[in-house]
Amino acid sequence: MDRYSRQHRIAGIGQHGQERLRSATVLVVGCGALGTHSADALARAGVGNLWLCDRDVVEWSNLQRQVLFTEADARAGIPKATAAATRLREANSDVRIVAHVAECSATFLAALPGRPDLVLDGTDNFPTRYLLNDWCHANRVPWIYAGATGTEGAAMVVRPGGPCLRCLWPDAPATADVGTCETVGILAPAIAAVAAFQVAEALKLLVGSPDVATGVFTCDVWRGHYTRLPLLDRPSPDCVACQHGQHPALVAPAPMAATLCGRDAVQIDPGTTAALDLTALAGQLAEVATDLQRTPHLLRFTADGVRFSVFPGGRALLFGVRDPLRARALYDRWIGRRP
Ligand SMILES: [Zn+2]
Fold first, then answer.
1. What distance in angstroms lies between residue 137's CA and the mean position of ligand 1's atoms?
2. If one looks up domain 253-334 in CATH, what number appears?
3. What value does the mean pLDDT of the chain take?
4. 53 flagged as catalytic
């Protein structure tokens, strides 16, 4: 236990808290910037069981902020969950780590071998966050929402019986309405600030501390602003999950990805009938995508070396990619899914 000697001197943890951490299981969904920061901290803190889930591979543009990855990982295109697990085992061989190279879907969550004690949001998209919200609500598992773009970040602890993400925002914002790391960039300290909040709250939850923060943590590291908005202290009377026990994300049709036979291309069908505002999307991508072309029938652009053709219903063809998981990651990154 010597390796944790500085940690269990913290009054709220102690030897007893350290034992609780050792027997805890945390599911980290998304091994990007936030997921790698938080998983690294939890492994070093001695959280005994970490389940990692990510569908993508390490790329050069990740290395600026995704702290568990190396140039060798990017060169070899190692799956993020696999690379993260390797690095975490080097940091703390006592932690039992399970790496899932998979899409976090309702099916994936249902197939987990048990309920984790806590779920951490390391995702980069709202549809997956609403899925986590609904699954955690249905299974009475706490989770910690977190996100960062540009120089700003936000995070919130969601506990069984307390306000959930749908209480705050009834529906996921459309990707065209919120910036992404691809369109507005991401400054690594914004990730570190949000991860610090997420990990501190995670440790408090896992040791059973009464000091878990309420409200919404927000920060802008460029301006030096760090605040917590005391927005909610009880579930919203209008929330479909908290008041009506409905979990729309658990029953929503999952997006379908199909490799086109004989072609280096994948078709993504988002599985919704909601229209996608191609003009708004084109405006958002104007400065970050190349070969952008808006026609009356579709939007074409190139990003990450892949050629996209996007149709008004959200269906898209991705040329230059064969792996459906990779294609779905690119789709969510550049187009996003409607809830
Ligand atoms: Zn709610």
1. 8
2. 3.30.310
3. 91
4. no
